[in-house]
Amino acid sequence: MKSSKLEKIKKDDNLYLFQNYGNRLPVCFTRGDGSYLFDQDNKRYIDFFSGIAVTSLGSNNAALSKALHSQVDKILHTSNWFFNREQIEAAKLISELTFPGKTLFVNSGTEACEAAIKTARRYGMSISPDKFEIISFTGSFHGRTFGAMSATGQEKIRKGFTPLVPGFKFLPFNDINAVKKELESNKNVCAVMTELIQGEGGIKIADQKFVTQLEKLCKKHKVLLIIDEVQTGAGRTGKFCAYQHYGISPDIITFAKGLAGGFPIGAIHTKDAVAALLEPGSHGTTFGGNHLACAAAGAVLKELKKKSFMDKIRKNGDYIQNYIKKLKGKTSCITEVRGMGLHIGIELDRPGMDLVKKALEHGLVINCTSEKVIRIMPSLTIPLSTIKEGLAIFERLIIEEGNKS
Ligand SMILES: *Cc1c(COP(=O)(O)O)cnc(C)c1O
Question: What per-residue confidence (pLDDT) applies to 23?
């Protein structure tokens, strides 16, 4: 049935908005409750996407909602000319959940990556004026502003925007010998920047051996190790950060997506000596660390700190992965399942967009990345009963899809 409300929305979108998101799915959500979303016609959907791993506590979470309302009634914004208790509180929680150090707040993932890149440049300059190169990896994604885009190892993101920022070098992901060779022959590298699970790159997971060796090589060659936790951070993988699964100690970590549960925010967290590289006046942002954004982050971080919160993410993530692995035996179109916690990719033998659209028609919100990878990242608070409800829909549709071929 065609929705007249949606037709009007589509028409106005085309009239008033840039059409850079040419692939918007045919639905306009107007309200949410936990892991359910409701569209313009009040149809209910199960949310297995959380707005690209952003609504970490689901929609309408009581603790987050309370923190936001109470902050709205107090003060929204003062700028970084003044002290800010909400910033301090959120930064303290990040330190407790990661490592002792300092936090800089910005407004998005790409800005967090920019801040990391600028810090790395300062680090290099402190040693030699030529030490400005940054190693990144093929298939990576770090954002859409110039520095972060130049660090992104995907041609489709960079296409048509040259000249890019110089000084980025791409090596194959998970190839430690390539990194070793580069660091041994090139003294101008100041940092290595990587995700541990390439999210936009199709849920590709870094090998333990690669990461352990990478940390060693960075230490040996006095190169900063930047771990981009924009998608994997804030509990997504069943630990607060993905790097914590690997037992390494990075110099800079970036955050954004899930950190404030849906309010725009970004951050980098570093050891004290690294933070000192951005001396007064060297970097800044008008909105970054806004009272409201940091009140939201504080509320999310307090939830994440609760005992057994992470256990539940891992348990529910394993449940989904095991369920999909069993499905693999019932249909030919799944080639691989991979993931950590509630960050799961299902690789298909064909493009996944048809399945995403079909699922939406049947009341299930999933996503497709890297063309063939169905990405499942529900809110961290999703109940097992809702997971089961969503998986039942997914099972029916993927078996139907497999029967097509
Ligand atoms: C989404 C993402 C970014 C960019 O974040 P924006 O908020 O969209 O600018 C950077 N790095 C990673 C790993 C991401 O997943």
Answer: 82
Which of the following is catalytic: 257, 263, 372, 394? 257
- Report the CATH number that the domain containing residue 140 is assigned in CATH: 3.40.640.10
Domain boundary among 244, 270, 304: 304
Residues 154 and 274 in one domain: yes
H/E stretch holding 268 reads: strand 266-270
Phi, psi of 108 (to 5 degrees): -165, 175
Within this chain, do residues 316 and 247 fall inside the same structural domain, yes or no? no
The number of folded domains in the chain is: 2
Tokens 């950060």 found at: 241
Q: Within a 10 A sphere around the Cβ of 330, how many other Cβ atoms?
A: 11
Question: Within 6 Å (CB) of ligand 1, which residues are found?
Answer: 108-110, 113, 141-143, 195, 199-200, 228, 230-231, 256-257
The per-residue pLDDT for range 153-202, each reduced to its tens digit, is 999 999 999 999 999 999 999 999 999 999 999 999 999 999 999 999 99
Angle at 393 between CA 392 and CA 399, to 5 degrees: 90
Task: Identify whether residues 240 and 91 lie together within a single domain.
Answer: yes
Residue 137 inside a domain? The answer is yes
- Tell me which of 114, 237, 257, 285 to substitute to probe ligand 1's pocket, judged by most ligand atoms within 8 Å of the beta carbon: 257
Q: Is the pLDDT of residue 1 over 80?
A: no
Query: Of residues 48, 49, 141, 255, which has the active-site annotation?
Result: 141
Sheet holding 36-39, edge to edge: 29-33, 36-39, 44-47, 364-365
